[in-house]
Amino acid sequence: MQSEKRNEADGLDLPVRFDTKIAVLLRDDLETWQRLNVTAFLVSGLGTACPEVVGEPYEDADGTPYLPMFRQPVLVFEGGKETVTAAHERAVRRALATAVFTSDLFGTGHDRANRAAVAAVGKEQLDLVGIAVHGARNSVDKVLKGARMHG
User: Which of 37, 82, 87, 90 is 20 to 30 Å apart from 123, CA to CA?
Assistant: First the structure.
């Protein structure tokens, strides 16, 4: 899966080169609050569909437990509407684990309404404002062609 090296001197893990990539692609015309909201919603689906991306629970020195998080970085990209639409098409064609967020979801208030809003529109007509993908690094890189790192 991924190569993990251990530094025997101090017991700390050295940087890991993952064979997979988690990426979020956001439309570049979103407000700041929308970017944050969309990113949070999109990545929430990956942990359940791809449990291997979730690490072990955390605990501080006092023994206070915390929830586990992703084992690898989440890279955030941006691009125009056409870039997001093209990336979505490539992700679906490659059968990558993909989450979508459409503009309609800004007007819904709960999960059932979100699913209904997506289900009401065909794949080609989705007004995508963001997608999240997980898969082999080279496949995700090809999906993100034309996107730039969010900055």
Answer: 37
Q: Read off the pTM.
A: 0.88
On the question of pLDDT at 128 being above 70, the answer is yes
- Alpha-carbon distance of 149 to 88, in angstroms, equals 17
DSSP type of residue 52 = G
User: CA 89 to CA 91: how far, in whole Å?
Assistant: 6
Q: How far apart are CA 113 and CA 139, in angstroms?
A: 31
Give the dihedral sign, CA 9/68/50/133.
negative
- CB-based contact 84:128 (threshold 8 Å): yes
Helix (H) or strand (E) run with residue 119 in it? helix 111-119
Among the listed residues 78, 102, 110, 98, the one whose alpha carbon sits nearest the alpha carbon of residue 140: 98
**What would the two tokens of residue 51 be?**
């449990």
pLDDT tens-place string over residues 96-125: 999 999 999 999 989 999 999 999 999 999
Tokens for 28, please give them: 């570049």
Q: What is the pLDDT of residues 44-66, one digit of tens each?
A: 999 889 999 999 999 999 999 99
